[in-house]
Design brief:
Helices cover 24% and strands 25% of the residues. The protein is an alpha/beta fold. It has a seven-stranded mixed sheet with strand order 1-7-6-2-5-4-3.
Length: 165
Amino acid sequence: MTVFGNERRFFLEGESETEQLGGALADVVKSLDQAVTVFLDGELGMGKTTLSRGVMRGLGHVGAVKSPTYTLVEPYEELDPPVYHFDLYRLGDPEELEYMGIRDYFSGRNFCLIEWPERGKGVLPNPDIEIHLERQGEGRTAALRARSELGAALLNDIELVGPDS
């Protein structure tokens, strides 16, 4: 039986390892028939968008992946599953999310990646996984925490080349 609330930690030496973690996350959601929500947390410059780029590339996206700081959401509807990349850094009030129909994004097979989720508190659903990125020496530590039974199952399936730290 999967233990809810489990955590996995990875040491990421640089950008390529951060993208690789995103690709590993993409691998475990490819075949799901339900929505997945992931919160990305960490200070500016910690690699949240880099990890998101790894997810998109892991699902077959070949173009640029930019942070949707000014648009709040960047859709990648051509991917399977469809991905919605949110950046709530410039969000003034969580109620603004209601005006953009935020609840519609968390349905079907949609995969939602949300940077700065604390700015949408009270409106966003609970995540399946929270990923916290922080500086550690010359690299980063990624702490992945399951926040649902689905999240716990996904964490158990994530495989990265190299040991957990």
